[in-house]
Amino acid sequence: MKLIKSGRYGDHAGPVLVLAHGAGAGADSEFMEALARALDGVGVASVRFEFPYMEQRRLDGRKRPPDRAPRLLARFRDVLAQVRQETGGHRPVLIGGKSMGGRMASLLAAESAQMDGVVCFGYPFHPPGRLDRWRTAHLLEVSCPMLVLQGTRDPFGKPEELTPHNVELGACELVWLAGGNHDFRPPARQGATQADLIADAARHTRDFLERHGLISR
Fold first, then answer.
1. Tens digit of pLDDT for each residue in 99-146?
2. What is the 3-state secondary structure (H, E, C) of the chain?
């Protein structure tokens, strides 16, 4: 089980964010690489891993659908246990990820109160165009601090779609990134870039950790 550790992972202090990838791209995707760099830049260490189906894709080159949730969660638990062991219990360890990876993190937090926090980057609140299939029922069970960074153009959940479902979000904090799509890419006319929005997401993550006492101000 390979872990991709950011530069700050080897620090002796500060939080560590365990990041899971989305359904279609692995831990070393352009988005995940940029996110890890941006988080490092604001003092948040990260470590990335891959689910079994993505590992298998690397071996044989065949695209395949994601594993079922129980297998995804089992891998997430194994990685979390390894990171906690490596950090010796002296640093806050949060979980999160991109899209499906963030959803799995929230499911893991909903089943266990032993989490320091959750940070999701582009949460898949519903499949695109399927407002009858919301993936929010478990969020009320999340007892640790939780943050979702969401683009305002994300087809998996836009501001006007989320408003009627605010109660279902529980204590989850939601920050909107202006113009961002599911990969935080804004339209060219906006003047901002995907890198700008990823940097904004990293800064919001740092602010979130400071508010909850998980990193020094």
1. 999 999 999 999 987 899 999 999 999 999 999 999 999 999 999 999
2. CCCEECHHHHCCCCCEEEEECCCCCCCCCHHHHHHHHHHHHCCCEEEEECCHHHHHHHHHCCCCCCCCHHHHHHHHHHHHHHHHHHHCCCCCEEEEEECHHHHHHHHHHHHCCCCCCEEEECCCCCCCCCCCCCCCHHHHHCCCCEEEEEECCCCCCCHHHHHHHHHHHCCCEEEEECCCCCCCCCCHHHCCCHHHHHHHHHHHHHHHHHHCCCCCC
